[in-house]
């Protein structure tokens, strides 16, 4: 039988044009909605980034400023500088010694230049000022340097920004290279970043007039007759209010800012630094022996009997700090090791020596203040 061709219905040209027009219209609406959602999401993320950036700055500052004064010695000030855009203080924040109970934190890999006392031979210029600090090297006792380092937080203009009011918050420990804490901080010409408060005669907190800033600890020795008058105001500051704006540069919506502020109490401000464990411990006598000539691994062994105040006397010795210096150097730096107290006699072997080295070793007993005894010295130890 002959085949018959069945008819199949299709779309007319007009129907195709209408369908394509509707599809393009839906795609255009969807694209606009997606772009709007993306812009709003980016703006929200920018606001969050600006806020987190600022919160990180104040949390970092709060964590360290609250413990300012820990480990300072009697003649060492707590607050060194107070200005609108900078603050400098002393604190034994970090130690490289695992048994150092006086420091706030222990970090055996910390930069040794950032955990020692700032010496007068390595003066730094206080941020935003022409004042060099310190005028003296603070010591716990004869031959024993303070363990408290000097830390500065300060704002400096961001040279990479086109905004003249955009700053970077920097942190500097002693004379080490400053590091960035936070970027994108907006400070106007009349803004107050650091505002300081002190107690009046009735114990009420009053703001330190901005016109009196900057303040700094001019007297070389804290508590000396020279530490009076206008320059002693810095010693009476007990609270700091931090306030600034942070910015996020949104490529579509422009700059997005967030206001950040917090209040930080200087918990140790106004406290008397005098010893709380009585008088400083009595010292010890130290002897040293060396490895044999030609030994494959040379060493120096130190030996000493316990301090009279270790298990007797005031019974307040917590540890022994061990010092080492080349015999060509007149003073010790920070301890290179620490031994817990509680024994009748002690030995320590220093294996970080080489044949031909010439060292002078010292040991000081340290109590809970911390106060240290005078350093018991060896003679010059020549490693065979």
Structural notes for this entry:
By secondary structure, the chain is mainly β. Helices cover 14% and strands 35% of the residues. It is built from one helix and 23 strands. It has one helix at 13-65, and strands at residues 79-82, 86-91, 94-95, 105-106, 124-125, 132-133, 139-141, 144-145, 149-157, 166-173, 179-186, 194-199, 205-207, 215-216, 237-250, 254-265, 286-290, 300-305, 317-326, 337-340, 345-350, 358-367, 376-382. The strands form six sheets. Strands 1, 2, 9, 10, 11, 12, 13, 14, 15 and 16 form a ten-stranded antiparallel β-sheet that branches. A four-stranded antiparallel β-sheet has the order 20-19-22-23, with no helix packed on it. A three-stranded antiparallel β-sheet has the order 17-18-21, with no helix packed on it. The model has no long low-confidence stretch (mean pLDDT 86).
Key words describing this protein structure:
4-stranded antiparallel sheet; about 375 residues
Radius of gyration: 32 Å
The string of secondary-structure elements, in order, is HEEEEEEEEEEEEEEEEEEEEEEE
First and last CA, distance = 120 Å
Name the overall outline: elongated
Proportion of β residues?
25-35%
Strand tally is 23
Mean pLDDT: 86
Helix content: 10-25%
Count of helix runs: 1
The low-confidence parts are: none
């Amino acid at each position: 039988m002959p085949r018959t061709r069945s008819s199949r219905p299709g779309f007319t040209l007009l129907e195709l044009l209408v369908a394509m027009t509707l599809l393009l219209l839906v795609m255009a609406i969807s694209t606009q909605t997606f772009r709007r959602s993306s812009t709003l999401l980016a703006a929200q993320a920018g606001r969050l980034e600006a806020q987190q950036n600022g919160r990180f700055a104040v949390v970092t500052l709060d964590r360290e400023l609250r413990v300012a004064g820990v480990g300072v010695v009697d003649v060492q000030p707590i607050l060194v500088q107070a200005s609108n855009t900078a603050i400098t203080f002393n604190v034994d924040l970090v130690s490289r010694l695992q048994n150092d109970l006086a420091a706030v934190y222990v970090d055996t890999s910390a930069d040794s230049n950032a955990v020692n006392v700032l010496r007068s031979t390595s003066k730094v210029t206080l941020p935003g000022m022409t004042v060099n600090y310190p005028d003296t090297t603070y010591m716990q006792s004869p031959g024993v340097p303070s363990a408290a380092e000097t830390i500065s937080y300060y704002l400096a203009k961001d040279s990479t920004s086109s905004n003249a009011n955009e700053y970077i918050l920097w942190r500097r420990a002693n004379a080490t290279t400053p590091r960035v804490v936070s970027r994108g901080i907006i400070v106007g010409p009349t803004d107050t970043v650091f505002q300081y408060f002190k107690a009046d005669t009735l114990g009420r907190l009053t703001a330190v007039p901005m016109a009196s800033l900057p303040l700094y600890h001019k007297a070389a020795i804290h508590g000396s007759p020279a530490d009076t008058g206008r320059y002693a105001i810095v010693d009476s500051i007990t609270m700091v209010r931090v306030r600034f704006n942070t910015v996020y540069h949104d490529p579509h919506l422009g700059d997005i800012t967030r206001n950040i502020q917090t209040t930080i109490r200087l918990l140790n401000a106004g406290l008397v630094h005098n010893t709380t464990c009585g008088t400083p411990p009595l010292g010890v006598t130290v002897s040293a022996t060396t490895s044999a000539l030609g030994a494959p691994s040379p060493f120096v062994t130190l030996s000493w009997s316990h301090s009279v105040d270790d298990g007797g006397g005031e019974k307040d010795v917590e540890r022994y700090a061990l010092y080492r210096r080349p015999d060509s150097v007149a003073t010790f730096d920070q301890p290179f090791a620490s031994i817990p107290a509680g024994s009748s006699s002690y030995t320590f072997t220093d294996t970080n020596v080489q044949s031909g080295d010439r060292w002078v070793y010292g040991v000081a007993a340290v109590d809970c203040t911390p106060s240290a005894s005078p350093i018991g010295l060896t003679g010059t130890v020549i490693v065979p």
